[in-house]
């Protein structure tokens, strides 16, 4: 297995091209019309660029042999919870540890940020993947986004502690 290199805050254009490729390639089980809606209306390019630029979303990029292999788009953590929005791997790099490397990197980064749980939604094609990486299925949401069944998963990283997940706020407040 080749070594997977992961970085946070990678190049936006690299992320965006790979995100579109996986979305249009059917990785997320959505219809062609739903994919068009997501790309053109729900998450247009400039909106994503702005959200990442403002720090409301984070991008993690994975590379194999210096080629973009996968990505993870997350929301800024709130209340000690980090939310994974989109995780995708180019078909050429699947089953090579890319998604696992992204999750591992995210977990370490989230701990540094004061997070105590990771949370995400997924479709039926990825249930076993997340279970095998220590995530717990927290619920079912049938016939949900874009007509697909979605499943809530979470992973506990540590016990919640307000002093940790509110540390930046508390530090500012104390002056």
From TrEMBL:
Return the Gene3D superfamilies for the record: 3.40.630.30
Entry-linked InterPro entries: Acyl_CoA_acyltransferase (IPR016181), GNAT_dom (IPR000182)
Q: Where in this chain does the record put each N-acetyltransferase domain?
A: 13-158
Q: Name one Pfam family in it.
A: Acetyltransf_1
Superkingdom in the source lineage: Bacteria
Bilayer-crossing residues are none
Which GO molecular function entries does the Swiss-Prot or TrEMBL record give? Answer: acyltransferase activity, transferring groups other than amino-acyl groups
**Official protein name in the record:** N-acetyltransferase domain-containing protein
The species this protein was found in: Candidatus Curtissbacteria bacterium RIFOXYA1_FULL_41_14
High-level lineage? Bacteria, Candidatus Curtissiibacteriota
